[in-house]
Design a protein that fits this description.
Chain lengths: ~100, ~400
């Protein structure tokens, strides 16, 4: 879900995605390449993201991922689901 | 052969797009590494240092590739191929070991399957007849002891009218003397009431089988004979013209009306003739002729129900014929399969079967011990491999 969300802001390549995730979460989530690339492959297999080769800001070849329509739907679904869970969890935590 | 196999695999991989995805992954990881290095050079590292630390931060390119491959659908197929090819390679490297393992496993499997075939033929599917589970043998329980039943022609007719059976026939086996073809010989003969083959559901290979018309109850049956496949091969060399010829049996001419397929009566009798069911009361003085009885249960009737419903009939037999039917005799109805399973050789057969299974188990244990021994002798190699770090599965 987090990967989908970051990509939804615009095309991203693997390395940039990893750095961005680190920054956004204040390095709470340290994504490793060993976790990232299998995840990207799974998302692509499911048709939620599409990869395309391009040049990165420092003129390196890189594979940029964009969100597909199906990916957008999936992101909305997962976001709703997450919202429901987090609301429920925080209610319990605050109420207890 | 190995080359063909690897070409086949290469084709399959191309077709599945495995190679293309591997190339993409390689390029992507390379790109990732470049970015990581660029970032480190920006922080002031030398290119060499940057490359080394960047590689370290990725934590093993090969490892990442493995994990990415495992995440794909159908990854198990790839893994299966790699494991299989590894197994084949190691087996080829030690042919002695491979031969020992193959021979001991082959021996175990051969013994087990061979004996299973026998058990299957003798106990699981012993008879080729149609509706085998409805074919029953009738017996009696006399003071708690089961024994065979023998009935007179009249009693057989009474049983044929019973509501629990849709076919009942008497049977007997004896030898008939065949003359007129070189040396006389005694031929094993199965006598069946004329309806017997129809009740058993035995079809002819050639010609026809006998039926009620050939031997109505109480009348002299037609002099017709049905040949088993064996007898037909032996005496007529498998010629279809056998049907319609005449055999001299017990010095009476019998017309050959049909031949049975190979799987029927492939042991035991060689020819089949209708049983003579004349109601001959004069036999009473020397004891009535009497025969064993088999029957086919009506659909939905099980042997226990049949026994219950036959009880009144047997009580009546006991009243009329106290010599053959003692007081308090109870009917016993067992399927042919049950009868066979109650036979004396069954425990021995099961024992041998169990032994063969144990043999297979021992063969497996042998091979696993061989593997263990080889594993021990390769401890050195494993130590080196472990010291070198993560190895591909």
């Amino acid at each position: 879900m987090l990967v989908l969300r970051v990509i939804s802001r615009g095309p991203m390549h693997g390395w940039g995605l990893m750095k961005r995730l680190g920054e956004l979460t204040d390095h709470v989530f340290q994504v490793t390449p060993g976790g990232l690339f299998p995840a990207l492959q799974r998302l692509e297999e499911n048709g939620w993201i599409a990869g395309e080769w391009g040049l990165s800001e420092n003129n390196r070849k890189a594979r940029f991922y964009t969100l597909t329509k199906a990916g957008r739907r999936q992101l909305a679904k997962e976001a709703d689901h997450w919202k429901a869970i987090s609301v429920a969890v925080s209610r319990v935590m605050e109420g207890a | 052969m190995n080359r063909h196999a690897s070409r086949l695999v290469a084709m399959a991989r191309r077709w599945l797009g495995v190679d293309a995805r591997d190339r993409t992954l390689d390029a992507e990881l390379e790109s990732f590494l470049q970015h990581e290095m660029d970032a480190r050079i920006d922080e002031g590292m030398t290119p060499g240092e940057a490359r080394r630390t960047a590689l370290a931060s990725i934590g093993g390119i090969q490892h990442v590739k493995e994990r990415a491959r495992d995440a794909r659908t159908g990854a198990w197929l790839d893994a299966l191929w790699r494991d299989t090819s590894y197994a084949v390679r190691t087996l080829r490297r030690s042919p002695g070991f491979a031969a020992t393992a193959v021979v001991s496993l082959a021996g175990g499997i051969a013994a087990a399957t061979g004996l299973f075939s026998i058990v299957n033929a003798a106990l699981l599917h012993p008879f080729p007849f149609a509706d085998i589970n409805r074919i029953v043998t009738l017996g009696v329980i006399d003071k708690g002891t089961p024994r065979g039943l023998s009935v007179t022609a009249r009693q057989l007719v009474a049983l044929q009218h019973s509501e629990v059976f849709d076919g009942t026939f008497g049977l007997d086996s004896w030898g008939m003397t065949l003359t007129g073809q070189g040396l006389p010989e005694v031929v094993g003969t199965q006598y069946l009431s004329a309806n017997g083959l129809n009740v058993l559901g035995v079809p002819p290979l050639f010609g026809r089988v006998f039926n009620e018309v050939d031997g109505p109850a109480g009348e002299q049956p037609q002099r017709v004979v049905v040949l088993t496949y064996r007898f037909w091969q032996r005496h007529f060399g498998g010629r279809p013209e056998a049907v319609g010829q005449t055999l001299s049996l017990n010095r009476e001419p019998y017309t050959v009306i049909g031949v049975l397929p190979r799987q029927y009566f492939y042991t035991g009798p060689e020819i089949l003739v209708p049983l003579d069911l004349k109601f001959n009361l004069t036999f009473a003085s020397v004891g009535d002729r009497a025969w064993a009885v088999q029957a086919r249960l009506k659909r939905g009737v099980n042997p226990r129900m049949a026994e219950e419903r036959l009880q009144p009939l047997f009580d009546q037999f006991a009243k009329e014929d106290p010599q053959r039917f003692p007081k308090d005799v109870r009917p016993l109805v067992r399927t042919l399969v049950e009868t066979r399973r109650a036979a004396g050789f069954v425990p021995t057969l099961l024992l041998i079967f169990a032994a063969s299974m144990l043999l297979l188990l021992i063969a497996c244990a042998n091979v696993s011990i061989l593997l263990l021994a080889r594993g021990t002798s390769r401890a050195h190699e494993f130590a080196v491999r472990a010291a070198l770090g993560p190895v591909s599965k």
